[in-house]
Design goal:
The complex is a heterodimer of chains A (215) and B (569). Chain A is mostly helical and 215 residues long. Chain A has 7 helices and 2 strands; from the N terminus they run H-H-H-E-E-H-H-H-H. In chain B, the strands form 6 sheets. A 7-stranded mixed β-sheet of chain B has the order 5-13-14-16-12-19-15, sandwiched between helices. In chain B, strands 7-2-1-11-21 form a 5-stranded parallel β-sheet. A 3-stranded antiparallel β-sheet of chain B has the order 8-9-10. The chains are: A mainly alpha (215), B alpha/beta (569).
Chain lengths: 215, 569
């Protein structure tokens, strides 16, 4: 089985997915109960960790090595959060009661967490204080901040959570166990054999005698 | 047969498969090396779990049952960049994907496997704008037409059927002042159906006597949506509705009896020799079996590279071939953007008789607007995960709440949406219609692929991708985004969102081993004889904005003729 992640790493990604796709009980009365569900309920942070740890395969020394990226990436978010806290640039109060050891990112409000992601993606941080492989590597930092975002939106709104107990298996061993909540939220019916939705053709393709064009 | 091929083709994708079929048809023996797996082939019943056999050259190996089992159309299973069936990586999905170094926001979207990136392409098969060819390319548009026609008849292509999203798009485009362009050769702005390599809808589709499941086993599109997640509609592999080369040119190549395809074989080095008359010439390839890790070599009279815009220059650079400053450089990407409209249910009922724009129905893209001088755009309907990513999660502008557009902007939002805004708009997914912007971006020598010897994987130094837009490209893209926003508003969208995609996105990568700079008009390398290119790399420019696949297939058809003419007649 896969290696257990440190509490700080898990808590950091939990806080990140929660700030992008939070639980929204306020939408329940307007749109229906299902719309209160958010990314932490659907374990999107675990998806993120799986993806980051299965992303990079390069030669280190003489052998091919799968470089797990979740820990240094969490450290990256915490470095940005640390800078926000040190400089007092958080706009909303800190949530000391949410703090997880070594993960200052968890102490920030949702919008301040995204402000710290923004600092990082604009490279308004001290690049020398970042963990390897991000240290002095602004391009990689920007790539990673973008990748994190893309993975969260795609991970949550795709069927991944529906793999249930098999969601962290390697992909060939996953089985869809339930209809994904995010697809219910989107009103998407899932893959279909087809739709009786033909509304005609605006133009007829100019098919001339095909033989004369086949050389 | 594969021991002594006349020609070796690297890559069984959009270009390689075409070249292989055309050469095979002329009686020459062809070996195709493909880095990824082969789906829908009996010799690899579990292509992601077991090595299977070495190669296949028999059309009877194709198996529709296996093909459908493997293409389940679930978006994460199909298109996840790390674990998806269509990812750029080895067949064994327990292993990570192959790495590309991208020191900026963005990604390089390519598929491995027989069929290459056409496995998830949208089938869009439009010709270049004549004005982007004549007086720019070293070939004339007229010289291209017979080859275009041949590919169009072989795939075959059709004008796309109308579903709700196309109807909305036409309505908006017309109200925005554009007129219908009834042509394949576009010289003026206008809208038209997309020209797609998708079989026309099954003629019984609207007949309730046939169940949809029955229809999906017959020939003809069932408007099942999401060509991007693969297509599983059809009675046999070769009659699948969306015409990726996996189901079009590869079966035709096998039928020639002269073509053998070896999947799971990653080309790592071009082998050359110095010949007293020809000078430096290609004689073979070194490749690595992705299951066993064993390196092997094969030799032929001609080598054709068609691994795409990252791997083709990488292979050149990692093989130590003669230096040429244009190898890997000058890359165009159509500097994409994405503009989305959200409609009101009641409005849609009044306008089109349905409460939904149905982004999940019909061809992924069935309608387009061409605008020579600026580029093009097309309506796009993708599955919810991809919609969330493309519309709300991918932006150079960062988070919307930190970057609110001014009141004079034609869109209500720019940048990533989060929290209840995001969730409310995703709750309106069925009322969502997106438009993909394709900019006529200019060749810029700074953009493209290099290799970094400090970062290596099992196939050598990895490709490093860089792209930055110029002020001129940005101006064009802004104009196109404003037109798209206007079309959406005219169609009745109540909210318009511009995603502002980062420049570091390569989906329509092209023109980084350009004709006239790296290869001649036959697509043979100037500096290495008997080495031909048959992928997007050879395009001289971004075609003015039209999608690149058909033009690459047209050139690959022509290149096959040139190869036979020069070395085998």
């Amino acid at each position: 089985m896969r290696q257990a992640k440190s509490t700080a790493t898990t808590a950091t990604f939990y806080a990140l997915v929660d700030s992008i796709i939070p639980n929204t009980p306020q939408l329940a009365s307007k749109l229906g109960q299902i719309h209160s569900v958010g990314a932490t309920d659907m374990d999107t942070h675990a998806y993120l960790i799986y993806q980051l740890d299965h992303f990079l395969n390069i030669h280190v020394g003489f052998s091919l090595f799968e470089v797990p990226l979740s820990e240094p990436t969490a450290e990256l978010l915490n470095a940005a959060a640390g800078q926000v806290i040190e400089t007092g640039s958080n706009v909303e109060p800190l949530h000391h009661y949410l703090y997880v050891k070594n993960a200052p990112f968890t102490m920030l409000s949702r919008t301040d967490r995204l402000r710290s992601v923004t600092l990082m993606e604009r490279l308004q941080v001290d690049l020398s204080r970042l963990p390897v492989p991000f240290q002095h590597n602004g391009g990689l930092v920007q790539f990673m901040m973008d990748t994190l975002n893309r993975l969260i939106y795609f991970g949550y709104y795709s069927e991944w959570a529906g793999y249930g107990a098999t969601r962290l298996y390697s992909p060939d061993w996953r089985k869809l166990e339930f209809f994904p909540v995010s697809w219910l939220q989107a009103g998407y019916p899932g893959p279909a054999y087809g739709y009786r939705a033909y509304r005609g053709h605006l133009l007829k393709y100019p098919r001339k005698g095909e033989e004369e064009h086949v050389r | 047969m594969s021991d002594n091929p006349d020609v070796i083709v690297v890559g069984a994708g959009g270009g390689g498969a075409v070249c292989a079929k055309e050469i095979g048809e002329q009686g020459l023996k062809v070996l195709v090396l493909e880095a990824g797996p082969w789906y829908g082939n009996k010799k690899w019943p579990e292509p992601n779990q077991e090595r299977g056999r070495t190669s296949s050259s028999d059309p009877n190996d194709l198996d529709i049952g296996l093909y459908k089992k493997q293409h389940n159309m679930y978006e994460n299973n199909m298109n996840d960049i790390v674990t998806g069936l269509f990812r750029w990586g080895p067949a064994d999905r327990r292993r990570p994907p192959w790495f590309r170094s991208i020191p900026q926001r963005g990604f390089f979207w390519q598929n491995s496997g027989v069929g290459g990136t056409t496995q998830h392409y949208w089938g869009i098969s439009v010709r270049a704008f004549p004005d982007a060819i004549d007086s720019h390319w070293p070939l004339s548009y007229n010289e291209m037409i017979p080859y275009y026609e041949k590919v169009e008849a072989t795939l075959p292509v059709e004008f796309a059927a109308t579903t709700t999203k196309e109807e909305l798009f036409y309505y908006g485009a017309k109200k925005a002042g554009f007129s219908l362009n009834n042509t394949l050769d576009v010289t003026k702005p206008g809208y038209r159906p997309n020209v797609n390599a998708i079989l026309p809808p099954n003629k019984h589709l609207m007949n309730p006597d046939y169940s949809l499941q029955q229809l999906s086993r017959m020939e003809g599109c069932t408007l099942a949506g999401f060509c991007i997640n693969g297509c599983r509609v059809g009675p046999t592999v070769e009659r699948i509705a969306k015409r990726s080369t996996l189901v079009s040119y590869v079966p035709l190549a096998l039928k020639t009896g002269n073509v053998s395809v070896r999947p799971n074989a990653f080309a790592t080095k071009i082998i050359t020799e110095d010949h007293h008359e020809e000078g430096t010439r290609a004689i073979g390839l070194e490749y690595r079996d992705t299951w066993t890790g064993r390196y092997e070599e094969c030799y032929a009279k001609v080598i054709v590279l068609a691994g795409g815009c990252a791997e083709t220059p990488r292979l050149w650079l990692n093989s130590g071939l003669p230096r040429n400053p244009w190898v890997g450089k000058g890359l165009t990407t159509h500097y994409f953007d994405w503009v989305t409209g959200i409609f009101d249910e009641r409005y849609l009922i009044n306008l089109i008789g349905e409460p939904s724009a149905s982004p999940f129905v019909g061809n992924t893209s069935g309608a387009r607007l061409d605008y020579p001088g600026l580029g093009a755009m097309h309506v796009s309907g993708v599955s919810p995960g991809l919609t969330a990513l493309f519309t709300y999660g991918f932006s150079e502008a960062g988070y919307h709440f930190l970057n609110i557009p001014g009141p004079d902007k034609p869109w209500d939002y720019v940048g990533r949406l989060v929290g209840s805004d995001l969730k409310q708009y995703m709750a309106s997914y069925r009322q969502t219609m997106s438009i993909l912007i394709l900019t006529d971006d200019q060749v810029n020598m700074k953009n493209g692929i290099t290799v970094n010897p400090a970062i290596q994987d099992e196939h050598g130094p990895v490709p490093v991708f860089h792209y930055s837009s110029t002020t001129a490209d940005e101006k064009k893209r802004n104009k196109l985004a404003a037109i798209a926003a206007d079309i959406l508003k005219q169609a009745g969208a109540k909210t318009v969102i511009r995603s502002d995609w980062p420049p570091g996105l390569a989906i329509h990568a092209a023109s980084n081993m350009r004709m006239g700079f790296v290869v001649d008009t036959s697509c043979e390398a100037y500096q290495v004889k008997r080495l031909y290119l048959a992928d997007n790399t050879v395009q001289y420019n971004g075609l003015g904005g039209p999608n690149p696949t058909l033009t690459t297939q047209m050139l690959a058809t022509r290149t096959a003729d040139k190869i036979v003419e020069k070395y085998f007649s």
